[in-house]
Design a protein that fits this description.
Length: 190
């Protein structure tokens, strides 16, 4: 019986009997899933639910998963094909790039060789021009030197004649004729 503090209740006889019956039934017997008398119905429901689950998987889930796998397989195959195609294109682009690079190098070498050859030709022409100018200047210088030498040699004779006449005059004290001194200097030089 329940007694709430501050309230007084009277217990009803019907309430006490139903409570007693429920408690007695509840305490008797085993847990229903483990009770052997319930096994046949449990096995029947297990078979029905398993069958329904099997049909659901067979009719709905497996085809959906299979179609998803097929779509993925096709997408992967397509992506692999596309990747192979792009790799071929990249390889072709690299080969073309290397070919163009080799051609550019060959052209650069050709241009460089042409520039070297033209520079050599220009340098050779300039060298020949400078050599020609130098030879002309050398010839002019040699002619000028020869002229100076001949004039100096011509003057040497007169200087030698004058010097010899002065020396003879101082040593001997006589004045000598210039023609005689010139003939003597000329005979000594030859």
């Amino acid at each position: 019986m329940f007694v709430t503090p501050g309230y007084a209740h009277e217990a009803s006889p019907a309430l006490d009997q139903s409570t007693a019956v429920e408690g007695a039934e509840h305490g008797k017997g085993a847990f229903p899933p483990f009770d052997p008398s319930h096994y046949p119905s449990q096995i029947l429901w297990l078979a029905i639910i398993f069958g329904l689950f099997y049909l659901f998987l067979k009719q709905v889930a497996v085809p959906r998963v299979g179609s998803i796998l097929d779509v993925r397989r096709e997408r992967i195959a397509h992506d692999l094909d596309q990747a192979a195609k792009m790799k071929e294109e990249a390889d072709a682009a690299v080969a073309a790039y290397e070919q163009e690079l080799a051609e550019a190098r060959a052209k650069a070498n050709s241009i460089g060789q042409d520039a070297r050859n033209s520079a050599k030709v220009e340098a050779e022409a300039k060298r020949k021009q400078v050599e020609g100018e130098l030879e002309k200047k050398l010839a002019d210088a040699e002619a000028h030197i020869a002229g100076i030498k001949s004039s100096a040699l011509a003057e040497v004779s007169s200087i030698a004649t004058d010097t010899a006449s002065v020396i003879v005059e101082r040593l001997v004290g006589l004045k000598v004729d210039k023609a005689t001194v010139a003939a003597a200097v000329k005979s000594v030089r030859e």
